[in-house]
Structure formats: C-alpha cells, structure tokens
Amino acid sequence: MKKKQKQNFALSIEKESILRKFTILFLLMSFLPMSLLYYLYFQIKEYGSVQISEENFNLTLSIIIIGIIVGYFAMRSVIKKVMELAHANRKALEKILSPDKIKELSNEKNEIAVLAKSFKSITQRLEENVQNLKSAKQTLHAVMTKIGHGISNIQNIDTFLELILETITDAFLGEVGVLLVRTEKENELQIRTIHGIKSKRLKKNKISFESESVFADILASKKPRIISDIEPETLELKKYDPLFKPPLLCSPLIVHENCCGIIAVSGKIKSKNFGEDELNQFFNFASQTAVALENSRLNKNIEKTYFETISALALAVDAKDKYSRGHLERVSKYCVQTAEKLGLEEEDINTLRDAAKLHDLGKIGIPDEVLAKKGPLNDQEWALMRKHPEIGESIIKPIRSLNHLCDIIRHHHEKLDGSGYPDGIKGDNITPLVRILTVADIYDALTTNRSYRERMPKEKAYQLLRNMQDQIDQDIVETFIETLEEETLP
Q: What does the pLDDT read at residue 286?
C-alpha cells in the first residue's frame, strides 16, 4: 500500500509544471541547511555555545552534501528537459521558418531565449496566416460574386469572357489582359474584351498582322509563349502599347485542333518575369476559354436557326393575307428607325427588331376566314382575333433564347388607358419597347389597304395617332413622325 502511494506521489510530481518541480526541489534542498542553522541557533541561545559532537557534525554535514547532490541532479534533470524542449522546438521551426531566422536562433546559446524567440516567431507566423486567410476569404468572396454575376448573365458571352479574363489576369498578377478572336480575314484579329484598361476606343478594334509576325507564329505553332522583352521579331507589339507591354504571356485559343484566337496577359506585378509553370497553367486556362467561345458560337447558331425558322413561319402567315403582306418587315423597319432616333442601346434595338418580325406570329392560330374577312369582324370573330398575341407568345416561350421577346409580342396591342388586350394593362406597366411597336403597328395598319377599307394618307394617319393621346405614348408618336418625315426629305 505504501509502495503504491509512493508511486502515485512520484507520478504526480512528474506531471507537474517545471516551475512547481523547481519549487519542490528548492524547498527540499533548503530544508537540511535551514534545520542545521536552526539547531545551531537553539544551541547558542540555550547554552551560550554550540554543543555538538564531532560524530554528529560529520553526520549532519554528510546529509547536507547528499541533499545538495540529489538536488543538483534533480535540478539538472529539469533543466535538461527544458533544453530538450528548446532543441525539439528549434528542429520543428527549421521546417517552417526562413533561413535567416533559423541562423539567428542557431547563434543564440540561451535555451530560454531560444524558446522565447521561437514562440515569438510562431506567433508572428500565425498572425501572418490569419491575415492571409482573411485576404483569401475576401478574394474568394470577390471571385464568387463575379462568377455569380457572370452566371446570371451567361446568355451574354461577352460578360462571361470579361469575368474569365479578369480572373486570369489577376491570378497571374498581370496588369493588362486582352482576348482576341480571329475574323474572316486570314491575318486579322479582333479585340473581344480587355481587362486593366478602361478605354472604350480599343474595344472591338481589329489588329492586322504580317505573316511573319509573333501573332502569326503563335497561331501557326499553336504553342504559348513568354515574351520577356520587345525584340526585332516582336517589334510590332509596340504599335499596340499598352495592350502588349512586356513581360508578356501569350497563348493560342485552341479547340478541336482549330485556333480561334489569342489570349494575352502583359505586365507583371511584384516580379520581373513569368515562369514556365505559369506558362503551362496559362495554356490550360486558354484551352478552357476556347471551349467557352466555341460553345457560345454553337449556341448562337442554334438560336439563329430557331429564329430563322420561326421568322419563316411568321412570314408565311403574313403572306397569307394579300392586304397585310410585307407588314412585318415594314413595322420592323419603323421600330428600328424610331429606337435609333430615341438613342436606345443596341441590344434593345435588336430585341425590338426581332419582336417586330414575330409580333403577329400568333395569327397562325386564327382561321383564314377571320383573317381575310371583308368588312368589320363580329364579336365572336373579334374574340378570336384578340387571342393572337397570346398564341404568338406561347409559340416562342419554350425557346429560352427568344424569351426576351415574349413581353413585346404579348402586349403590342395594350393601351395606356387599359383598353387594350389581352391583359388590359396600362400606364407604366407597358414597357418602352412595347410602346414603340404599338405606334409602328397602328401606323402601318392605317396606311395600307385592308379588306374592309382603303389605305389612309400619312397626314391623316399622323393626326389619328396624335388623337390617341390617352392610348399611346405621344412622345414616341412625335419621334416616330419626325423620323418618317426625315426619311422623305430629298
């Protein structure tokens, strides 16, 4: 039992902190000398002199010496553990600290100082790691935001290419990124998008190059290049400063063994040049970008086929009625002229043009006897005719690439006062593009022959449009009339 208690005591002492061990050993070492001093003090106080035999003195001195020796080895054991800890710590730090810091620690002989400096270095490294993690988190958040924005605009390939180029340029610490695509001409590239330069003048510009130029070499060899400086063979790059400022990473855009363009990152932040590893990574990024471009081209071809097929269907409907034949083309022309006069964006103009060509598509679902009836329609026939905007919308709605035309096609017969069809919407619920198409549609209907009446002179049609001030947008009416009048001037 006593042996077990001694073992437990020894284990408990072993697990204690170095400071506690030191305190216990110091007290044990001090006990015998203090006891001897107290004994001598008691002898002097009691007898006026020290009463101790030589035998007792030798025994006491031996015990003190033995205590000092035991204390020495015990203290040495504790200090040795501190030294071993410092040595192990130094070995571990050699794997993570810089050579200069390791050399500094190696010159230090005081183990406690080594520990203190080591812990300070570790603390600094941890703080740096925390800052790096924060920076990485912010960068990741920014990239995810850009990707989210790009995905939400995935139908606009230019937006997605801008995101790709910005990400690649930042990843390689470049200053300027540029993406060029091949045109129909053999020795010509068109600037598709730029990152790092805000000049709108450079965008969509075309670059012509000689057959012996660096561009021709990259396209022919289908290999990426690092251009460290402007050499005689790359002297032409100076003409396009600051797009191609050395050092420069250039890679062809290759898909299915075909080269469709070039992507380049120029300038280098925090470094003098690009490395071979960066060149290989850049080539991989370029290959993925080329795939995105090719997919976009294929999607555009599919969308073009969809539109052309449905346009042919709409024209077939238009041709069924000899009185309204050519109506779609004329209305489309009026819409584009008015939209350009109003200063609309190119994207909106294209949307309006396409919608105008398809706005009467729904008449394919209206019986021929109603479409070609001579004279006014009765209530039942009008009910059928009023369905054509909904039918037209239902035809194009399943085609995702034509979804942006749905609102215009469905609502081109709506009026500002709510008297239109099919939904009876009014006021601000009718978009500007719909309002333009409505004016153009009414004007063309008034100025062409119909089965139930003769065509109206344009001046009378103008007046009728102006009289519909509660139903159609008068600002658009005036712009529309102004556009037509300018067209007729000699």
A: 85
pLDDT at 207: 79
Structure tokens at 191: 């600037």
- Of 284, 212, 222, 215, which Cα lies nearest the Cα of 252? 222
What pLDDT is attached to residue 437?
Answer: 96
Distance CA 17, CA 246 (A): 61
Q: How far apart are CA 341 and CA 228, in angstroms?
A: 49
According to the model, what pLDDT value does residue 311 have?
A: 75
Q: What is the pLDDT of residue 406?
A: 93
Predicted confidence at residue 410, as pLDDT, reads 95
Q: Which amino acid is at 333?
A: K
Q: Which residue has the tokens 């609309």?
A: 344
DSSP letter for each residue of 60-118 = HHHHHHHHHHHHHHHHHHHHHHHHHHHHHHHHHHHTTS-HHHHHHHHT---HHHHHHHH
189: β partners: 182, 207
What does the buried/exposed string (b/e) look like for 400-431 if buried means 16 or more CB atoms within 10 Å of the residue's CB?
eebebbbbbbbbbbbbbeeebbbeebbeeebe
Residues of the chain with pLDDT under 50: 2, 6, 9-11, 140, 144, 147-148, 150-154
Omega prior to 422 cis, within 30 of 0: yes
Sheet holding 206-208, edge to edge: 206-208, 188-195, 176-182, 258-266, 248-255, 225-227
Q: Which helix (H) or strand (E) holds 386?
A: none
- Angle (CA) 436-442-448 rounded to 5° is 130
CA 79 – CA 72 distance, rounded (Å): 10
| Residue 312, helix vs strand vs coil | helix
What are the tokens at 186?
């053999």
Angle at 408 between CA 406 and CA 411, to 5 degrees: 100
Q: Which two tokens mark 8?
A: 């437990």
Structure tokens at 449: 């022959």
170/212 Cα distance (integer angstroms): 31
Q: Which alpha helices (H) appear in 109-213, and where do they start and end?
A: 111-152, 157-171
pLDDT confidence of residue 153: 46
**Contact (CB, 8 A) for 175 and 268:** yes
Q: How far is CA 343 from CA 305, 349, 466, in A?
A: 29, 9, 22
pLDDT of residue 197: 80
Rounded to the nearest 5°, which phi and psi values hold at 269?
A: -85, 135
* Span between the terminal Cα atoms of the chain, in Å: 125
Q: How many whole angstroms separate alpha carbon 153 and alpha carbon 160? A: 7
Q: Would you say 283 and 251 are in contact if contact means Cβ atoms under 8 Å apart?
A: yes
